[in-house]
Amino acid sequence: MTSAIPPDERLRPLLTRDYVRFRQPTEDGAAWLAPPSTAVTVIINMGDAFGGLPEAFVAGPSDACDVVTMDGEIDCVELKLTPLGAYRLFGLPVSELTNQVVDLTELADLRPGRLDEDLLRLADAGPEPAGEVAWVWRRLHGTHGNTPIAALAAEVGWSRRHLVNRFRAQTGLAPKTLARVLRFEELLRRLPGTELAEAAAACGYYDQAHMNRDFREFAGTTPGAWLARFPSVQYPWVRAT
Known about the structure:
Layout: E1 2-5, E2 19-24, E3 30-34, E4 40-45, E5 56-59, E6 66-69, E7 74-81, H1 83-90, E8 101-103, H2 115-125, H3 131-142, H4 149-156, H5 160-171, H6 175-190, H7 196-202, H8 208-219, H9 223-229, E9 237-239
Antiparallel strand pairs: 1-2, 2-7, 3-6, 3-9, 4-5, 4-7, 5-8
């Protein structure tokens, strides 16, 4: 069971969606699906920790899929931060979180009953992302990664190398990698329910072979095998086969 918890409106620019409370009874053979993501995920367990992870943790941006098996009952609050939101709140290069799971207590003190208060306090004390980085992030996010990086560098007046270095530090991924993950995220949102060729074209893939290459790199499998194992990515509680 899931339930949304609206955040303070001042925090919405730092978040990708409302806070979510997950409650899942024990189910043998189930797994948590974690696709590649540009978001930074914060999990605060209300019950026992799951999957061998800390009681409260931060999972950084990623460019690969992972599956976390579930043991026992799950009861947690989940926050999804934009990469620049995480930079603002935690005050460290988001590149240090990329493909990592970090104990939340090493970064911040977040209390489930006072999330708004704690996040607003962190935001007030945190660093501002570079305006150029924020602008490139908005452009890539708004086009699901389908904007040439060289053009974006030229538009902000930076060299491509300078953009890559600053962007990776503040978002966790290099611009080209982040663009590819954004496109793959959009593809997964469209599947299932859309023909593969149609979904590939809508997401900016040149052809199905181009999409298949991203599936192999980001998911380690083919689109057909992915859909057979994980029929839904909207709700991540799925049965592994």
